Amino acid sequence: MSARVAVPKEVTAGERRVALVPATVAKLTGRGVEVVIAAGAGAGSFFPDDEYAASGARLVETAAELLRDADVIVKVQPPVPEETELLHAGQVLVCFMDPGHGLERVAALRDRGVTAFALELVPRITRAQSMDALSSQASIAGYRAVLMAASGLGRFFPMLTTPAGTIRPARVLVLGAGVAGLQAIATARRLGAMVSAYDVRPAAREQVESLGAKFVSLDLDASASGGYARALTADEQERQSALVGEHVAGSDAIVTTAAIPGRRAPVLITEEMVGRMRPGSVLVDLAAESGGNCELTRPGETVERGGVTVFGPLNVPSLLPVNASETYARNILDFLGLLIDDGALAPRWDDEIVTASLLTRDGVVVHEPTRAALDEFAVAPAKHHERDDRPGGDAKEAP
Ligand SMILES: NC(=O)c1ccc[n+]([C@@H]2O[C@H](COP(=O)([O-])OP(=O)(O)OC[C@H]3O[C@@H](n4cnc5c(N)ncnc54)[C@H](O)[C@@H]3O)[C@@H](O)[C@H]2O)c1
Known about the structure:
The protein is of the alpha/beta class and about 400 residues long. It has helices spanning about 20-30, 50-55, 65-70, 80-85, 105-110, 135-150, 180-190, 205-210, 235-250, 270-275, 320-335, 350-355, 370-380, 380-385, and strands spanning about 5, 35-40, 60, 70-75, 90-95, 115-120, 160, 165, 170-175, 195-200, 215, 255, 280-285, 300-305, 310, 340, 345, 360, 365. Strand 7 (about 160) and strand 8 (about 165) form a beta hairpin. The longest helix has 20 residues, at about 135-150. It is globular. Nicotinamide-adenine-dinucleotide (NAD) binds near residues 201, 204, 261, 266 and 268.
């Protein structure tokens, strides 16, 4: 029997992306998969209903109708409670799940018997690269952050020689040279800026330099598994602070992307450092969602201090919804290749990508760190309530 894949319209405020675009729908229907999509689901990313219909999708009007008989539900954002209530045992859900900040949501999916996959948990192995939604979206955020910085800055990025004099290029500093940071470096370089970048993983040096930027480093290695970084010790943080402070003051624009999985983002730029920047400089904090790399960052807001503008944008990929949806849809399509065989639902339960990204199944939270966090919640609810569970909250024990 052919699997039925459902695509809801995203309901989270500000979310413009959609989980499948018409081109990926056509690929799925071509493989014998049935696709149903909520009317208007692609509107935020400029994919009209008639293109979905032409690609073989069936359009439905209500979420209840959409989800009732679906075998697999693909989304961008984690489900809101109203969506979770419409799900039933045996259904497969694939989306970003932010498990560390949504324990109640995970518990609800568990209790409803939903088989939930979290795209954040897809392992960073070569075979999974085309399913790596964190990377596809981070790259978009890095690009967009530089455009934000360039349009907020009161000066050119490139060096210009004009009859009215020579204009020096803007000095751009990128903190965190992972996926978002590298795209930020490449974009700032394309705009002609002089770029320096800092990371705590020595492996980033070669990548930074190959993009024509200068690598700033401390003599340390904070690499952790999967290409991620570990948190620094107090002593390392002190040295980091001195180094970063030195570079911050001389920068016209700063893009920060430093993150440590499951933790609050490290604070790299203090209020005092911002105070040493020239008026008119800008800082775009891509880590705003997980608390921010700058002390002054207010998630979702723009703050001005001494003439320096600090942007704390949220959900940046959604600001480029066309390409964000296209690349996300491609990630989903390839992930579904592990769950659907010959048009029918047949998850490869022994595949390491499937096992690593599985969050809940048959009434059990399968992902160990999330289960441990839930157990703690069940044992000591008061403590859980004290935890800052907002995006960016200090959920240290989160997976
Ligand atoms: N399939 C794969 O093999 C694969 C896929 C994606 C990423 N990766 C690797 O993982 C790396 C990082 O991935 P990411 O961008 O998703 O990571 P991330 O979003 O968790 O972190 C962003 C960057 O912040 C850096 N960082 C952490 N603490 C810092 C600090 N105190 N100061 C400065 N920088 C700090 C990290 O080292 C990382 O480069 C990539 O650059 C790549 O090398 C591998």
